[in-house]
Amino acid sequence: MFRRLSLLLAVVVVLAGCAPGEARGGELTVFAAASLTGTFTELGAAFEAEHPGVRVRFSFGSSATLAQQIAQGAPVDVFASASPATMKAATDAKAVTFARNRLRIAVPVANPAGVDELADLADPRVKVALCAEQVPCGAAAVKALEAAGVKVTPVTLERDVKATLTKVELGEVDAALVYRTDVAAAAGRVTGIDFPEAAQAVNDYPIAALTAGPAAEFVELVRSERGRDVLTRAGFEVP
Amino acid sequence: MSSANTPEPQKRPGAPPKRGGVPPGRSGVVAGRLPWVLVVPAVLGLGFLVLPLAGLLIRAPWATLPSRLAEPQVLEALRLSLVTATVATAVCLVLGVPLAWLLARVSFPGRRVVRALVTVPLVLPPVVGGVALLLVLGRRGVAGQWLESAFGVSLPFTTAGVVVAEAFVAMPFLVISVEGALRGADQRFEEAAATLGASRWTVFRRVTLPLVMPGVVAGAVLCWARALGEFGATITFAGNFPGRTQTMPLAVYLALETEPEAAIVLSLVLLAVSVIILASLRDRWVSA
Asked: Who wins on pLDDT, B16 or A27?
């Protein structure tokens, strides 16, 4: 038993030692908000095609988490976040707004609670999921609901927009407030409903190049005609 | 495998091990210098485990600590954490000890497979476990649908859901620990009881259970600690709502998004409470 354990331990140690290091030659590291996963993956492939020898590596996640990692010294060349506040927390580098996102009501395709406007979410029989106020989509939801004067008691405050959407997809809640882009990405599995007060809580997405070199070119690609096209197709509004 | 590990003297008939006696080497002094091949890794290991804790202590905002602790949300989350972890441990004891007994004492076809299945929640990323629970016990889940239509019970987004998620993730710790204790225990006591006419249930209650009690307690402690720190399955299955399903780890995670200092305070509270409880339990039960 002991021998087996020590063998296992040895294997683990060796494997850990073999893990790739932090070599960054010819590599562009992009930290981006989770809601950019689809669009940026596509743009990254396009960038690699245009710049042979450069590999684009992505880390997608909650903007706040990524911002903290950057502030703690994570090696990163480009940061695209879902809110100006998280961008400011991460870096002093100059950032530009490259996309905007607004909220939609997402309901399961069958729409069991018969939701068709924001006021319906106030009904206590309707189970609603919102993002927690600490993450950008939750802050936007609070703003939009306040603007509409609708008081909602959610059953859960989710940690990010994808988790919120999953609850709708699984049919565990009757409605949620998520971004337009998330509804578009889950087309066929959820139905999106627009509401006018979403205009009061539009999220600006800033992007910044944090290092010299190809980072600025990547930012350019995102803001180019091609980048705007990819973003628009995913449901973003571009300035 | 277990028989090969049994110490030699125990195999000799006519020399039963002294019950409650001290195993050799535990209290006896082994002479000689400490071998550095053991001491150096041991110290490194200890440092590795303790340094992150030191990091929390160093960065803790001591000045604002009292006012943060007094926030009702913190106390609410702490209370919820303690209650759910304790109930989850109770659930694990009721279901897990018999399961461990079944695995250790009854031979049935497919026992190896069942034993491997018990460890699934250990390997499964907790978030995946939470999704799996939703698929079974959720509103549209196989069993959840039936629960809701028959009893009007819906587990997701309830405190009971937190208990379910914690028990799912923590039970393997208890089962493995108790099963190990059962397999290491001397079965001749049970056989003797059986030859004297005791039923299997009586043997379990009067002989087996007292014999493996230290293993059960150790397993329950591990199980409780794991349940207390549970995050992924809980937030996925039970959601996150203050006072109902927001346990300390969930509160820590969300605080980390905006207020890292608050997150440190919350982590310290969770740590302090769990260390105090575990240490007092240890003195009372484990080392006795």
From this structure: A27
Q: Residue B176 and residue B181: Cα distance in Å, rounded? A: 9
Residue A80, φ and ψ in degrees, nearest 5: -120, 120
- Which residues on chain A are in Cβ contact (under 8 Å) with B232? none
- Same CATH fold, A103-201 and A27-100+203-233? yes
Query: Can you read off the two tokens belonging to residue A100?
Result: 């905007």
Q: Does the domain spanning A27-100+203-233 belong to CATH 3.30.70.141? A: no
Which residue in B120, B52, B89 sits closest to B219, CA to CA? B89
pLDDT, greater one: A180 or A24: A180
Mean pLDDT of A60-73: 88
**Which residues of chain A does B245 touch, with a Cβ-Cβ cutoff of 8 Å?**
156
Q: Is A127 part of the contact surface with chain B (CB cutoff 8 Å)? A: yes
Domain range B73-286, CATH class: mainly alpha
Q: What is the pLDDT of residue B285?
A: 61
Mutate to test the interface with B, among A172, A173, A189, A190 (most CBs of B within 10 A): A172
Domain A103-201 bears CATH identifier 3.40.190.10: yes
Q: Which two tokens stand for residue B69?
A: 């602790």
Asked if ipTM goes beyond 0.90, one says: no
Q: Scanning the structure block, which residue is given the tokens 């960054």?
A: A24
Please state the pTM of the whole predicted model.
0.78
